[in-house]
Amino acid sequence: MIPLREIIEKFIDDNGQQLLHDLGRLVAIPSVAPVSPQPGPYPYLEPCAQALDYMLRRGSEIGLAGENIDYRCGVLSYGDGDESIAIAAHLDVVPAGDGWTGDPFSLRVEGDTLYGRGVNDNKGSAIMGLYLMKFLQENQIPLKHKIQLILGCDEETGMTDMPYYLSKKKAPAITLVPDGEFPICVGEKGLCEGEIISQSTSDDSPILSLKGGSASNMVPSSAVAVVRATGLPTPACGDITLCEKDGQTTITAAGVSAHASTPDAGDNAIGKLVDYLLDCALVEGYEKDVLETARDLSCTCYGEGFGVACADETFGKLTCICGTIKKDEQGQYAIGFNIRWPMAIQGDVLKSAIELCCGDIDAKLQLNLFDEPHYVDPEQPAVQALKRCYEQVTGEPCGHYVISGATYARYFPMGLTFGPMFHSDIEQMPAGHGSAHQPDEMLPLATLKKALAIYIDTIAALDGIL
After folding, report:
1. Domain limits of the chain?
2. Between the N and C ends of the chain, which has fewer C-beta atoms within 10 Å?
C-alpha cells in the first residue's frame, strides 16, 4: 500500500495548476462586503454572492454536496457522519486601497509568490479547503465524520455570517480556521466596540466643530477642532498647531496610528486635542464633563478610563482606546471606543462599568459589538492531535498562542485558528506591503501547498480521535 504521505504529495503536484486557476478566478471577484447586511437576495452585495456561487459550483463539479445558506454563507460537505469536522474560511476581502504595484484583482505569480487581494486573507485558504475536499473525494478516504468547508462572506466587516450559520446548523465537533499563523491559536480576547452619545451641548459653545479618528479600532493619528476664539496659549505639546482666521482658531493635533490591539504602539491624537481644549478652559459645565470623559478614555489605553484595568496570564492586559470623536451640528458628541478584554473580567462587569461611565454624563451607550473571550484548553485531545500533525509534517516543535484580534474561531465551541501562514513568511515581507489588508498582499505558493498537506493529515488524525 502506498503511504498516505506519498499520495498527498502526488495529489498536490498533479493539481497545482488547476489550484492556481481556481484561485485566480476567485481573486478576480472584488468581493468587498458592506458595513452591514443589505436588503434583497444578496445581503453582502453581488460580488460576495458571485464568489460564493463560484466555490459552490466548483465543489459540485468535484462531487461534493453543497448548500447556499441565503447568500450569507455556504457549505461544501464530504461524507455523511452524524458529527462533523469543519474548516471555516471567508470569501470577502477588504478594499484594495492604494500602493499596489499591479492589479489587486488579478492573480500574479512571480517566482514562488502569489500576489492579489485575498490570496492570504482569505481566498487562498478557501481554495486550500476546496482542494482538501477534492483529495478526500477523489481518493474516497473513509472517515466516520462528515467533513465540511464553511464559506463565509462577512468576516471583514460585521461577522454576521457565522452567527447566522450557527442559527441554522449544528456546530461542528471541531472547527479549524485557516486565517492566521501556524502553529495553533487557542484563544481570542473579548471584543467590545461602541459609542458614547452625549446630550446636546450649549448653542453658544465656543467649540464649533470637533472630529478625530476614522475607525474605532485604530488609535487616531489626527484630530481637529474649530473654536470661536483667538489668542489661545501656545501648546506645550509640539504635536498641536494653531491657525487663526476670521476670529476663529483651527486646532490640529497629530498622533501615531496603531491597531487597537496594540495601543501602546500609537499616540492618540484625540487625547492631545481634548487635553489642550480643557487646559484652555474654553467650556464649563456639561460640555466640560463630556470632554473630561473623552480625555479619560483617550489618554489611557488599558481601561483606566472606564475603571476596568485588569490582566491575566493567558491574555495579558485589557486594552481600551478612544478611536473616534465627533461633535455634530446639534452639539452632541459621539465618542467611539474599542475594548479587548482578557478572562480576568466578566462581560457583565465590563458592561456595567461602561454604563456607569455613560450615566455620569447622562449619555446613551450604543454597543455595536460585544463578544466574550474565546479560549480552548490546549491540553484537549484535539489540540494535542493538531500539534502532532504539525510536528510530523514540518519537523518543527508546535506551540500555541492567543491573539487580541478576531477570527471565525470565536463563534465555534471548539474553534481553533490553524495557519495557513508561517511566522517566517511574515518576517520576510517588506514594511507596509505583502501582509493581509496591505498593498501587494502575498502568499508563498510553497506555504499554500505545505498548509494543504498539513490540513489533509490533520483531518485524518482528528477523525480518528474524536
Report:
1. 4-189+374-465, 191-223+252-371
2. N
- Those residues with Cβ within 8 angstroms of residue 266's Cβ, 6 or more apart along the chain or in another chain: 219, 221, 255, 256, 257, 258, 321
Q: What is the mean pLDDT of residues 332-354?
A: 97
DSSP string, 126-188: HHHHHHHHHHHHHHT---SSEEEEEEES-TTTT--HHHHHHHHSPPPSEEEE-SEESSEEEEE
**pLDDT value at 1 more than 70:** no
Cβ 361 vs Cβ 290: under 8 Å: yes
CB atoms within 10 A of CB 186: 24
Q: Are 91 and 51 in contact (CB under 8 A)?
A: yes
- 191-223+252-371: CATH topology is Alpha-Beta Plaits (3.30.70)
How far is the C-alpha of 71 from the C-alpha of 265, rounded, in Å?
39
Q: What is the pLDDT of residue 3?
A: 73
CA 411 to chain centre: 13
Q: Give me Rg for the CA atoms of the chain.
A: 25
Supply the mean pLDDT for the chain.
94
Rounded CA gap, 223 and 310, in Å? 28
Intra-chain end-to-end CA distance of the chain, in Å: 25
Distance from C-alpha of 213 to C-alpha of 195, rounded to nearest angstrom: 13
By C-alpha distance, which of 349, 307, 336, 348 is closest to 197? 336
What pLDDT digit, counting tens, does each position of 356-398 carry? Answer: 999 999 999 999 889 999 999 999 988 998 898 888 878 889 9
- How far, in Å, CA of 23 to CA of 107, rounded? 8
Report the alpha-carbon distance of residue 173 to residue 327 in Å, rounded: 48
Fold classification of 4-189+374-465 is: Aminopeptidase (3.40.630)
- Smallest CA-to-CA distance from 92 within 162, 175, 171 is with 162
Q: Give mean pLDDT, residues 24-40.
A: 95
Contacts of 300 (CB under 8 A, 6+ apart): 320
**Contacting residues for 236 by C-beta, under 8 A, at least 6 apart:** none
Strand partners, 66: 76
